[in-house]
Write a structure and sequence with these properties.
Ubiquitin-like (UB roll), Receptor-associated Protein, about 75% helix, about 5% strand
Length: about 400
């Protein structure tokens, strides 16, 4: 007869676990219910199966960390299963089997083990150190209120919204960037590889280079002479930039300057405002205190200068001040945010106001991304056309000179 490991709680709330022999998991559950226990999970005592073979461990995909979209999908699956009546442990075991990455399967297995040892789901997810703080906070509130599936679903929706905004921005910039890189590559090949050979050919014929071709040849000579210096200088600048970026004070200064860059700064500001309003509104609606919600929101903002403004707002609230005052800083969040927060504070409807602010700025961000795409693509075409046109005109002028034209 097979053995099954069980998890259960008695009427006093004490946790019980063990291994029993029975024909089916249903028989185990019936036996435990006769004792007056609430069954939280039943699984085969053999555990999660065979050991991972060496070939699997050598696969790089085995060690890749889970992506945000993987966690988002798991949250949606968990919400559906909990709403369907499955126990938490059964849902976690299903997530472990359905996870698309081996690292996420290991994480869910670890979370399941911690819960079986008596730890709460929020604590287990926090200890895993891969789940967003927003998700952990919502799960903690969901466990306390008994609305875990609703909390997980809200977290998944927030993660999906952030992912879509980020994907739209990257999509708008991807095509122009690829065109620019390709044009620079073709131009570099013409200047460094083709034009010098053409000059040698024309000089052998005793022909004088046209003025436009001579200018291109001079650029080619300068590029070949100073290319090593340019590469070294570029690497040094990149190294300094990386060092400044990863230094806390340097990162704040960099992100502050980024907000003042034309077009790009507006996108970052709109994205930060929408993310702040959306996250804080959901946290407040879920029952989390304002101070705890602000602390969680700080970690969600990618722009560290905006995060520092949230820190200042939290300190102001601790000292008895208004939340809206530190949010009025110029070149930080969108001006509308502070005004609407002030209205929400006075009316006691801060979560509803933040939800409206998030919707408005998400719409504005979508429009700004479309506008950026409309502006950047023609600009890239003009720049690329000018560079390539100059190179080709110089090239064909040299060919006409070689032909005696």
């Amino acid at each position: 007869m097979p053995s099954f490991a069980f998890q259960a709680r008695d009427t006093a709330g004490r946790h019980h676990s063990g291994v029993v022999e029975a024909a089916t998991p249903s028989a185990v559950a019936q036996t435990l219910r006769r004792r007056g226990w609430v069954v939280t999970g039943v699984k085969p005592a053999s555990g999660d199966g065979a050991e991972v073979d060496l070939l699997t461990q050598l696969n790089p995909g085995y060690w890749l960390p889970p992506r945000s979209v993987d966690i988002e999908l798991s949250c949606k699956q968990m919400a559906v299963m909990l709403r369907g009546g499955l126990t938490l442990l059964t849902a976690l075991q299903a997530l472990e089997k359905q996870a698309s990455r081996a690292s996420l399967r290991r994480i869910w297995h670890s979370v399941t083990g911690r819960i079986q040892a008596g730890t709460s789901l929020a604590t287990a997810m926090h200890e895993a150190k891969v789940f967003p703080s927003l998700l952990v906070q919502l799960v903690r509130v969901g466990e306390q209120t008994g609305n875990l599936e609703q909390a997980v679903e809200r977290a998944a929706d927030t993660m999906e919204s952030r992912r879509r905004l980020r994907a739209n921005l990257l999509t708008a910039l991807a095509y122009p960037s690829l065109v620019l890189v390709a044009a620079i590559g073709v131009t570099a090949f013409m200047v460094v590889g083709v034009i010098p050979k053409l000059r040698t050919f024309l000089e052998g014929l005793g022909r004088k280079l046209p003025a436009i071709t001579q200018l291109l040849v001079d650029i080619s000579d300068a590029a070949r002479i100073y290319l090593p210096h340019f590469i070294i200088g570029t690497l040094i600048l990149i190294g300094l930039g990386v060092a400044i970026y990863f230094h806390p004070a340097g990162r704040v200064a960099f992100d502050r300057r980024m907000l003042r860059v034309p077009v790009i700064g507006n996108l970052v500001r709109l994205a930060g405002t929408a993310s702040f309003a959306r996250a804080l509104g959901i946290l407040l609606r879920s029952g989390i205190t304002l101070l705890e919600g602000l602390r969680t929101t700080e970690d969600l903002l990618g722009n560290r200068y905006l995060a520092s403004r949230v820190t200042a707002a939290r300190q102001a609230v601790i000292q008895g001040g208004a939340l809206s005052d530190p949010l009025t800083t110029a070149h930080a969040f969108a001006p509308m945010l502070a005004r609407m927060v002030a209205i929400g504070e006075s009316a006691g409807t801060l979560d509803e106001v933040l939800d409206e602010v998030a919707k408005f700025h998400e719409t504005q961000l979508q429009a700004a991304i479309r506008q950026l795409s409309v502006i950047v693509e023609p600009l890239i075409i003009v720049v690329v056309g000018t560079i390539v046109g100059f190179v080709y005109i110089a090239f064909f002028m040299a060919l006409f000179s070689a032909g005696g034209a």
